[in-house]
């Protein structure tokens, strides 16, 4: 990323994030609107990728925002970005949702809606500086991508992935590590 | 510890994916705290996964922003009282480094169920959710009532069907009986209407003056029918026997069935070649070869 002025997009983003964290810590309800505008597309996209149904994804996002608001005093900015933290809240709630028996039974009866949600394309203009999904996944080989997706979006453990793909646990671990390394190198 | 080897081991990637056990996670966090180099490496890895997540961004549907923000606001208003308690309860926990909530990959401490509950904002006014609640309650009540009604109607239907089946069986049995009886009567009527039949009045002897019976005799076909009007009930073990008198000689014309003797039906008797008179005696059940004259009850001439 090339710095175009004294403030790089990165530092500007960091600045808004620090401000946002401060407002949330002050229990400023208006900050949640800014939070929504900043993160909803990414959070919604990942939740939708996990739960597959738009209506459920919306419910999970709202549930996650309530949880984020209530748990915010325990967020420590020094330990990681706000985005990482809130993404994990959303991911965990979404995975809990698909693991609930009720959801599995319900989703089996709605294959059409499910496929409609899957067809929904990623929004390329979400953040001008972010690397596109196509570009990222092109860097992963299909085996690596499959494993990252099962672990990150499917809520599978490594043992479950090994069982699902009929692979030795060691191979799953190796591929998962390699895949994450590829992803983290892409943005350095 | 060889930091480079630790980084190369891939455990940080596993940490970032959230696939480590509690103990492994705690160990990684300890190393991260002690070695800034490892911490930097972990941050790179987390940024990589974050970017991957961001790459999946999808523009939310129309109207979702208002729904979600209003739903969120309503949910936190509903639990505003509880929140104070949670904040005070969380405050001391937030300070130590190793708590679940301060590390990026840990799930947020479980909030009470109510806080996590999704509140869907209705487009109408404030009372809408309570109206919805009433509607739902009413729907459920209606559904239950309808279910109960269906059950009652169904069991009543079952009962009715069973009754109908019984009635139909009884009716068809009755119809069959009646048809057989009718056929018999038709036959008898045809017989009696035949001009060749001669009716013979058998009148009571002085021993039983009230007794009265009628015999229909067809000399051409030799057929004999008996129709009892009034006969004293025979003693038990006894039966009325009909005799034809041909030139003064008694010929057995058969035994009267109990129903015939009671006057319930006309009975066809044995064929008789020739007769000038008919008579009835009371004999042992099954009949005898020659009449017991002392029990002569009715008699009549052609």
Short description:
The complex is a heterodimer of chains A (188) and B (302). Chain A is mostly helical and 188 residues long.
Could you explain how this protein is built, in words?
The complex is a heterodimer of chains A (188) and B (302). The model of chain A is unreliable at 1-6 and 107-129 (pLDDT under 50). Helices cover 72% and strands 0% of the residues of chain A. In chain A, helix 2 (31-51) crosses helix 4, helix 3 (54-71) crosses helix 4 (82-99) and helix 9 (158-165) crosses helix 10 (169-186). The termini of chain A are close together. Chain A is built from 10 helices and no strands. Chain A has 2 domains: 9-122, Rna Polymerase Sigma Factor, Chain: A; 130-188, Winged helix-like DNA-binding domain superfamily/Winged helix DNA-binding domain (Arc Repressor Mutant, subunit A, Orthogonal Bundle), CATH 1.10.10.10. Helix content of chain B is 49%, strand content 17%. Chain B is of the alpha+beta class. Chain B has an 8-stranded antiparallel sheet with strand order 5-4-7-8-1-2-3-6. In chain B, helix 2 packs across helix 4 and helix 3 (22-34) packs across helix 4 (36-54). At the A-B interface, helix 2, helix 3, helix 4, helix 7 and helix 8 of A face helix 2, helix 4, helix 5 and helix 6 of B. Chain B: It comes from Hymenobacter rigui. Chain B: It holds the Pfam family RskA_C. Chain B: One of its GO terms (biological process) is regulation of translation. Chain B: It is a single-pass membrane protein. Chain B: One of its GO terms (cellular component) is plasma membrane.
Which key terms come to mind for this protein?
heterodimer; A: 188 residues; mainly alpha; Rna Polymerase Sigma Factor, Chain: A; Arc Repressor Mutant, subunit A; 2 domains; 0% strand; globular; disordered N terminus; B: 302 residues; alpha+beta; Immunoglobulin-like; 8-stranded antiparallel beta sheet; cell membrane (chain B); Anti-sigma-K/W_factor (chain B); sigma factor antagonist activity (chain B)
């Amino acid at each position: 990323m090339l710095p175009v002025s004294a403030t790089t997009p990165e530092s500007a983003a960091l600045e808004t994030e620090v401000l946002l964290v401060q407002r949330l810590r002050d229990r400023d309800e208006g900050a949640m609107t800014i939070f929504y505008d900043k993160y909803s597309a990414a959070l919604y996209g990942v939740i939708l990728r996990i739960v597959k149904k738009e209506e459920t994804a919306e419910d999970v996002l709202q549930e996650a925002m309530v949880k984020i608001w209530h748990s915010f005093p325990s967020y420590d900015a020094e330990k990681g970005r706000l985005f990482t933290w809130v993404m994990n809240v959303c991911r965990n709630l979404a995975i809990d949702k698909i693991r609930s028996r009720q959801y599995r039974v319900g989703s089996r009866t709605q294959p059409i809606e499910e496929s409609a949600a899957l067809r929904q394309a990623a929004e390329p203009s979400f953040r001008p500086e972010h690397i596109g999904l196509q570009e990222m996944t092109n860097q992963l080989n299909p085996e690596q991508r499959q494993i990252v997706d099962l672990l990150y979006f499917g809520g599978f453990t490594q043992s479950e992935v090994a069982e699902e793909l009929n692979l030795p646990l060691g191979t799953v671990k190796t591929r998962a590590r390699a895949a994450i390394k590829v992803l983290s190198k892409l943005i350095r | 510890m060889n930091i480079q080897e630790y980084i190369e081991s891939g455990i940080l990637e596993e940490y970032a994916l959230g696939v480590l056990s509690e103990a492994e996670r705690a160990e990684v966090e300890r190393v991260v705290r002690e070695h800034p180099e490892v911490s930097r490496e972990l941050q790179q890895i987390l940024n990589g996964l974050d970017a991957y997540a961001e790459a999946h961004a999808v523009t939310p549907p129309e109207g979702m922003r208002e729904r979600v923000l209003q739903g969120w606001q309503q949910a936190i208003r509903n639990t505003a009282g509880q929140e104070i308690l949670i904040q005070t309860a969380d405050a001391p926990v937030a300070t130590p480094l190793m708590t679940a909530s301060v590390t990026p990959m840990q799930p947020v401490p479980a909030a009470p169920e109510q806080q996590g509950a999704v509140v869907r904002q209705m487009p109408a006014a404030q009372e809408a959710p309570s109206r919805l609640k009433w509607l739902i309650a009413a729907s459920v009540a209606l559904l239950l009532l309808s279910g109960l009604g269906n059950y009652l109607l169904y069991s009543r239907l079952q009962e009715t069907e069973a009754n109908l089946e019984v009635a139909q069986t009884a009716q068809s049995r009755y119809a069959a009986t009646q048809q057989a009886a009718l056929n018999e009567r038709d036959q008898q009527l045809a017989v009696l209407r035949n001009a060749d039949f001669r009716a013979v009045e058998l009148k009571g002897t002085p021993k039983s003056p009230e007794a009265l019976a009628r015999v229909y005799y067809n000399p051409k076909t030799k057929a004999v029918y008996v129709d009892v009007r009034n006969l004293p009930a025979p003693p038990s073990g006894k039966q009325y026997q009909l005799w034809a008198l041909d030139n003064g000689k008694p010929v057995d014309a058969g035994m009267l069935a109990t129903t015939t003797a009671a006057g319930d039906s006309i009975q066809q008797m044995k064929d008789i070649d020739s007769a000038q008179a008919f008579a009835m005696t009371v004999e042992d059940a099954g009949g005898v070869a020659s009449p017991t004259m002392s029990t002569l009850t009715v008699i009549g001439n052609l």
